[in-house]
């Protein structure tokens, strides 16, 4: 995938899917900037990567703080020379339950982390990419970004907003040779799975509980599928793909050598071929 030697900044890299992707990029030969709020989680992720022969840089920062994010991007540039790829994986599930029963502060903080945090990450990484006329922005979305998700209004609203932000930003930087896409990584066993199960059927809903139980038993989507899609979108093989919302189970490999129609894989999820 032509990732070897590239510099990748990954937010939310201390655990969950962000950590999975960080390990995958390091195994592919990328130099990885690990960004998260927890020092202990960062230490463990860096140790795992380096024990496998990879290169990683720890950066303790909060995506909600633009100054911290700009400083983080500068640290990656100082250490590795540039930020070639941004993977914005930091996110929280937020309050679970009917909208009127959720606490407004927790609801608003979910928007702050998931949407504004992703925007801050792009503000920090994008200027250098535009200047070099080369770069990849990959933002993670998830359940609710392309369909209704009752009892998860804050999460779904924030992730749908991220998907539309991706579409708009992709058009803005098209002539700067920077590609911007979002990934829906599918159900994977993370701390969010446990949060759903802890909320119970009364707050999460029967279908969410059933899905979470299935993910807990099976582990959910294989990490390799998530990593391969991210590696593709980070590589030069995807220079013709931008402004898209791609689910890990989509038949995205067909577009490795051909262009997508403009209406395909957008927030509306139109699939006319």
Low-confidence stretches: none
Spatial arrangement of strands, main beta sheet: 3-2-1-4-5-6-7
* Annotation field: number of helices: 9
What percentage of residues falls in helices of 4 or more residues?
40-55%
How many β-strand runs? 7
Mean pLDDT: 94
Largest sheet: 7 strands, parallel
> Order of helices and strands, N to C?
EHEHEHEHEHEHHHHE
Strand content: 5-15%
Structural class: alpha/beta
Distance between the termini: 27 Å
Cα shape = globular
Rounded radius of gyration (Å): 18 Å
Fold and architecture overview:
The protein has nine helices and seven strands, in the order βαβαβαβαβαβααααβ. It is globular. The longest helix is centred in the middle third of the chain and has 29 residues. It is of the alpha/beta class and 273 residues long. α6 runs antiparallel to α8. The chain has a seven-stranded parallel β-sheet with strand order 3-2-1-4-5-6-7, with helices on both faces. The model has no long low-confidence stretch (mean pLDDT 94). 47% of the residues lie in helices and 14% in strands.
């Amino acid at each position: 995938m032509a990732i070897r030697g590239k510099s990748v900044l990954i937010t939310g890299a201390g655990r969950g899917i962000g950590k999975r992707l960080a390990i995958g990029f390091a195994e592919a030969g990328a130099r990885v900037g690990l960004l998260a709020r927890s020092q202990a989680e960062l230490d463990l992720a860096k140790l795992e990567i380096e024990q496998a022969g990879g290169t990683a840089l720890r950066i303790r920062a909060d995506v909600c703080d633009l100054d911290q994010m700009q400083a983080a991007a500068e640290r990656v540039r100082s250490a590795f020379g540039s930020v070639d790829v941004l993977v914005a994986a930091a996110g929280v599930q937020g309050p679970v339950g009917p909208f009127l029963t959720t606490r407004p502060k927790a609801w608003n903080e979910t928007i702050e982390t998931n949407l504004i945090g992703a925007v801050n990450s792009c503000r920090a990484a994008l200027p250098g990419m535009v200047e070099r006329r080369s770069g990849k922005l990959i933002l993670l979305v998830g359940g609710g970004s392309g369909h209704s998700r009752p009892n998860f209004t804050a999460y779904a609203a924030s992730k749908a907003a991220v998907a539309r932000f991706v579409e708009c930003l992709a058009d803005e930087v098209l002539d700067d040779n920077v590609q911007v896409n979002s990934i829906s990584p599918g159900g994977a066993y993370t701390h969010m799975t446990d949060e759903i199960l802890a909320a119970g059927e009364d707050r999460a809903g029967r279908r969410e509980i059933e899905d979470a139980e299935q993910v807990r038993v099976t582990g959910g989507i294989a990490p390799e599928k998530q990593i391969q899609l991210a590696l593709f979108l980070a590589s030069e093989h995807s220079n013709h793909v931008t402004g898209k919302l791609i689910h890990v189970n989509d038949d995205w490999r067909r577009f490795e050598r051909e262009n997508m129609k403009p209406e395909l894989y957008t927030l509306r999820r139109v699939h006319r071929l």
